[in-house]
Amino acid sequence: MSVKQFLKDWILPIAMLAGAGGYFLFHYAGFLSPVKPAVWKVVEVLTPSLIFIQLFLTFCKIDFKDLRISRWHWIILAFQTLSALVMAGVLIFVPMDETYREIFEGAMVCLICPTATAAAVVTDKLGGSAARITVYNLMSNILAAAFVPLVFPLVEVHQGTGFVSSFLKILSKVFPLLICPFLLAVLIKYLWPKAHDYFRDHAGVAFYLWAGALALAIGQTVRSMHNSTAPALVLWLLAAAALLSCVLQYWFGKRTGLAFGDSITAGQALGQKNTVLAIWMAYTYLTPVSSLAPGTYAIWQNIFNSWQLWRRNHKGGKPVARN
């Protein structure tokens, strides 16, 4: 097996192990303590920078004519809305112990969380449509920005800002990182075609940049889990709730997309989540403990993505999608 093939098959597990190992190295190696604050600052800047570059490269590949809404977009958007509303209804109307509330809150966040900003990169690598998942990314972010300030305060009462402020705050965390690389790709395509062709021909680099961003994200996830004061049982229950949410959403997305010849794209659109945003939403509008659910969701979804990539690399063939 060549080094290139090995990386194609195992780069996501390697990135996840590197992220977790990197965190524990900095946590337990005393001689690294003086540089830890600087490292976390670098991570905060490097993560969005990597996402921006990888999205820009991916957007250089897409055909802008494919940026249109398909019927499956509305079906999985309705599923995402209704499933999160069911969780909210249980939390509002069914009395339960605080521990179980945190489990259901964690599941609700995993369901309403929008599509991962960099999902287009993985979808493209799997043979799906980067254009169609970008459309759903916008739709799911608008949904989350409206749902969270309307419904979450009914579940957990907090003194906070109003609907409009919360709506704009959530969108501001995602839209610049999603829209700006898209606009840059459009501008370069029409103003500097040769450069656009160069970036399009080297768009495969985006996947490896995504692996680097994944390592940083997993390191941050492990950090939040390791620093949590939640009992081990609660952590395991939250992980189980996240796993069930992950399986359900990937299954429904793929099953729905299959009817439209777009199983990969629909599965990733509903299943691959922006867990960093989900952690922030749970921590801000619900409880710190419930934020551990999207943290473990990040692990589950990337284990599944690793398997999908391995399977595609060994099976070959690119599906043909239709609308």
From TrEMBL:
<keyword id="KW-1133">Transmembrane helix</keyword>
<feature type="transmembrane region" description="Helical">
    <location>
        <begin position="72"/>
        <end position="94"/>
    </location>
</feature>
<dbReference type="Pfam" id="PF01758">
    <property type="entry name" value="SBF"/>
</dbReference>
<keyword id="KW-0812">Transmembrane</keyword>
<feature type="transmembrane region" description="Helical">
    <location>
        <begin position="38"/>
        <end position="60"/>
    </location>
</feature>
<dbReference type="InterPro" id="IPR002657">
    <property type="entry name" value="BilAc:Na_symport/Acr3"/>
</dbReference>
<feature type="transmembrane region" description="Helical">
    <location>
        <begin position="135"/>
        <end position="154"/>
    </location>
</feature>
<feature type="transmembrane region" description="Helical">
    <location>
        <begin position="174"/>
        <end position="192"/>
    </location>
</feature>
<protein>
    <submittedName>
        <fullName>Transporter</fullName>
    </submittedName>
</protein>
<feature type="transmembrane region" description="Helical">
    <location>
        <begin position="12"/>
        <end position="32"/>
    </location>
</feature>
<dbReference type="GO" id="GO:0016020">
    <property type="term" value="C:membrane"/>
</dbReference>
<feature type="transmembrane region" description="Helical">
    <location>
        <begin position="204"/>
        <end position="222"/>
    </location>
</feature>
<dbReference type="InterPro" id="IPR038770">
    <property type="entry name" value="Na+/solute_symporter_sf"/>
</dbReference>
<feature type="transmembrane region" description="Helical">
    <location>
        <begin position="234"/>
        <end position="252"/>
    </location>
</feature>
<keyword id="KW-0472">Membrane</keyword>
